[in-house]
Recover the amino acids of this structure.
C-alpha cells in the first residue's frame, strides 16, 4: 500500500516481486491519494467476492493473515444488526472495525497485519498481531508512506542502515523496529499505528504486551487439564479451512503434541510431514515416523542433502529479503516445498519452547545460576586465572557467567554476542526489549519472556513465515495462541521445568497420545549440518562468497578477526559456523540487492 504517486505498472511490479505470498489473485485499488495492492492466498471463502482490497462504505481494507475466532465475532456483529455478503474473516474484520474501531483488536484471536483507510477522516489505521506472526514493514519519510508484508518492494532507492548491519552481526537477524534500510521500519507486535494524512502525523500505540502476572494457586493435575483443553481449542480453531490442511511432525514434543491433537479432533485423516538428514546426529525423521504410525496420519519424510541446500540458497535470498542467518531456514524451505504438493495449510509446534522452557539455553541458565551468585570481582578473577583450563571447564557458557556482572546481562548474552565481530560496539538496541526485567521475579521466566519478545518474533516467526509463504503455504501455530502464552506464564515454574525435565507439563499431556518411552528420545533440533558442509561439499561456495571485496563493504566488521575464525574453522581446529554462515548470508544479500 502506498501514497506515493507511482504509476500502476510500478505497483504491479512491486507486487509481482513477492507474488509467492498470494498467487491466487492480485487486486489494486486507488482511493483518494492512496493506492492499495493485495496478493491473495485463498484459504477461507474461495469465491472472488472475498478478494481484496475490500471496501465497505468509506472504509478500505488490505489484510494478511487469519482470524481464527471470526465466526464468534461475526455472530456478535449479526446480533448488532449487521449482515454479511461473504463467508470470509476479511469482511468480519472490516465490519468489526466499523463497529468497534481499535477495540476490535481485543476481540481478535489470530495472526494478522492489516491497514484500513477511512476516507471520511483521511486517516489510516494499521495493526499487527500480538506475537508478530505476520510481518509488517513500512516506509515513512517526509510525508511519503509505503506498507508491505516484505521489505523487497520498499528497498529501491534506499540506503543501508549501518546500525542494522551491526545488530545483525551481533545476532542472526534484524529485530523490530529496525530494518536493513534507512527510514523503513517494522511495526512491533501487539501495536497499532495511526496516520493522519491531513496533519501529516504518525502515532504508534501498544494494545497487547506481556505483563507482570500472579502465579495460579492450582494443583498440577488441574493445570494440566486446563492447558490440555486450551490446546485442543487452539488446534481446533486452526483446522478451519476451505483448502487441504496438514501438520509438521518432527521428533520433538511440541509438533508431536499438536499433530496428535489434530489427528484426534480432525474429521478426516491428517497429513503429516517431516525433514530428515543423512547424518544421524541431525536426523529425527525415524522418530517422527514412529509418531505418525501411532496417530495414524498419512506421513511424508524428505531427506535433506547438501545438494538440496545448494539449490535452495538462491531461494533463501529471494524470500528472506533482509539478512537472516538462522540456518534452519534451509530445511524449513525444503519442508514447505514438499508440503505444498499435498496441502495449502499446515499446523506447526512453534512457540512451545518459549512458553514451556524447552531450549538448551534454559538449562545453561540453571547450571550457571550458582556461578552468578558469586560476587562479580571473584568471578572475574577466576576467569582470568586459567583455573578453568586446569579442570577442563573452559567453555563459552562458563566464561559468560564469570564475566557478566548481572543476571539480566547473562540472559541478554544468550541472544547477542555484543560486538564480538565489530570494530566498535553498536548502540544499545536491546532498549526496546527491557520490559522482561520487570514482568517476573523468576530467573527462568525472565529469560523465557525475553525469548518470546525478541527471538520468537524476529527469528522463529520470520523463519516460518518466509519459508512457508515462499511456496504459498500458510502455517498456523497453536502454541502462539495468545491465550496459551498468557496461561503458561501464570503456572508455577516447576510445572514447566523440574530437575532438568523441560516442558514437563507438555510431556505429561502427550502421554495421552504417545507412549512416553517413544517420545523421551533425545531431541536433535531442527538444524542442517552446515558446519560439515562448509568444510566439504560447500567449501568453494563459501570461500568465493567471503572474499576481500565483500568483507571490505561490511560496515564496522572486524575483518582481521573474522578471517582468523574462518581459517580456524575450515582447518577443522575450531567450530565458528555461526559467524561464517552469518557473513555468507550477508554476502548473498549484498549481491541480490546490488548494495
Amino acid at each position: 500500500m502506498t501514497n506515493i504517486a507511482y504509476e500502476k505498472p510500478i505497483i504491479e511490479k512491486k507486487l509481482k516481486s513477492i507474488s509467492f505470498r498470494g498467487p491466487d489473485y492480485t487486486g489494486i485499488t486507488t482511493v483518494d491519494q492512496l493506492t492499495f495492492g493485495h496478493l491473495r492466498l485463498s484459504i477461507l471463502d474461495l469465491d472472488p467476492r472475498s478478494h481484496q482490497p475490500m471496501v465497505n462504505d468509506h472504509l478500505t481494507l488490505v489484510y494478511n493473515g487469519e482470524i481464527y475466532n471470526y465466526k464468534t465475532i461475526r455472530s456478535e456483529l449479526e446480533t448488532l444488526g449487521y449482515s454479511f455478503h461473504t463467508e470470509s474473516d476479511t469482511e468480519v474484520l472490516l465490519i468489526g472495525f466499523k463497529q468497534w474501531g481499535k477495540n476490535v483488536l481485543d476481540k481478535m484471536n489470530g495472526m494478522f497485519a492489516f491497514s484500513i483507510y477511512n476516507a471520511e477522516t483521511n486517516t489510516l489505521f494499521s495493526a499487527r498481531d500480538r506475537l508478530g506472526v505476520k510481518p509488517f514493514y513500512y516506509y515513512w519519510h517526509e510525508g511519503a508512506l509505503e506498507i508491505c508484508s516484505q521489505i523487497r518492494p520498499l528497498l529501491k532507492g534506499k540506503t543501508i542502515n549501518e546500525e542494522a548491519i551491526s545488530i545483525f552481526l551481533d545476532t542472526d537477524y534484524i529485530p523490530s523496529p529496525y530494518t536493513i534500510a534507512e527510514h523503513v521500519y517494522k511495526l512491533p507486535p501487539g501495536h497499532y499505528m495511526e496516520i493522519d494524512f491531513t496533519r501529516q502525523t504518525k502515532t504508534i500505540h501498544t494494545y497487547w504486551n506481556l505483563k507482570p502476572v500472579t502465579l495460579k494457586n492450582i494443583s498440577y493435575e488441574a493445570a494440566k487439564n486446563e492447558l490440555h483443553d486450551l490446546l485442543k481449542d487452539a488446534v481446533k480453531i486452526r483446522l478451519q479451512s476451505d483448502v487441504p490442511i496438514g501438520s509438521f511432525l518432527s521428533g520433538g514434543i511440541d509438533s508431536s503434541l499438536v499433530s496428535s491433537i489434530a489427528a484426534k479432533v480432525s474429521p478426516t485423516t491428517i497429513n503429516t510431514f517431516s525433514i530428515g538428514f543423512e547424518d544421524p546426529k541431525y536426523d529425527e525423521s525415524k522418530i517422527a515416523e514412529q509418531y505418525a504410525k501411532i496417530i495414524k496420519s498419512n506421513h511424508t519424510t524428505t531427506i535433506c542433502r547438501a545438494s538440496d541446500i545448494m539449490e535452495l540458497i538462491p531461494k533463501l535470498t529471494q524470500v528472506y529479503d533482509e539478512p537472516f542467518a538462522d540456518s534452519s531456514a534451509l530445511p524449513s524451505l525444503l519442508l514447505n516445498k514438499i508440503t505444498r504438493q499435498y496441502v495449502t495449510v499446515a499446523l506447526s509446534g512453534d512457540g512451545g519452547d518459549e512458553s514451556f522452557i524447552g531450549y538448551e539455553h534454559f538449562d545453561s541458565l540453571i547450571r550457571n545460576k550458582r556461578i552468578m551468585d558469586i560476587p562479580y570481582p571473584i568471578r572475574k578473577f577466576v576467569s582470568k586465572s586459567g583455573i578453568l583450563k586446569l579442570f577442563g571447564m573452559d567453555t563459552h557458557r562458563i566464561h559468560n557467567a564469570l564475566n557478566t556482572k548481572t543476571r539480566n546481562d547473562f540472559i541478554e548474552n544468550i541472544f547477542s554476542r555484543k560486538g564480538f565481530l565489530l570494530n566498535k560496539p553498536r548502540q544499545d538496541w536491546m532498549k526496546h526489549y527491557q520490559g522482561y526485567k520487570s514482568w517476573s521475579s523468576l530467573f527462568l521466566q525472565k529469560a523465557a519472556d525475553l525469548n518470546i519478545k525478541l527471538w520468537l518474533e524476529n527469528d522463529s516467526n520470520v523463519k516460518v513465515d518466509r519459508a512457508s509463504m515462499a511456496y504459498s503455504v500458510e502455517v498456523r501455530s497453536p502454541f502462539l495462541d495468545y491465550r496459551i502464552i498468557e496461561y503458561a506464564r501464570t503456572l508455577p515454574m516447576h510445572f514447566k521445568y523440574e530437575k532438568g525435565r523441560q516442558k514437563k507439563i507438555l510431556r505429561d499431556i502427550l502421554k495421552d497420545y504417545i507412549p512416553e518411552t517413544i517420545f523421551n528420545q533425545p531431541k536433535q533440533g531442527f538444524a542442517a549440518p552446515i558446519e560439515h558442509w562448509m568444510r566439504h561439499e560447500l567449501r568453494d561456495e563459501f570461500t568465493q562468497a567471503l572474499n576481500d571485496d565483500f568483507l571490505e563493504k561490511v560496515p564496522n566488521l572486524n575483518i582481521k578477526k573474522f578471517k582468523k575464525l574462518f581459517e580456524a574453522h575450515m582447518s577443522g581446529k575450531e567450530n565458528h559456523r555461526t559467524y561464517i554462515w552469518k557473513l555468507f548470508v550477508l554476502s548473498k544479500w549484498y549481491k541480490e540487492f546490488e548494495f
Summary: DSSP finds 28 helices and 18 strands in the chain. The chain has a mean pLDDT of 91. The chain has four domains: 8-206, 220-357+446-519, 360-445, 530-593.
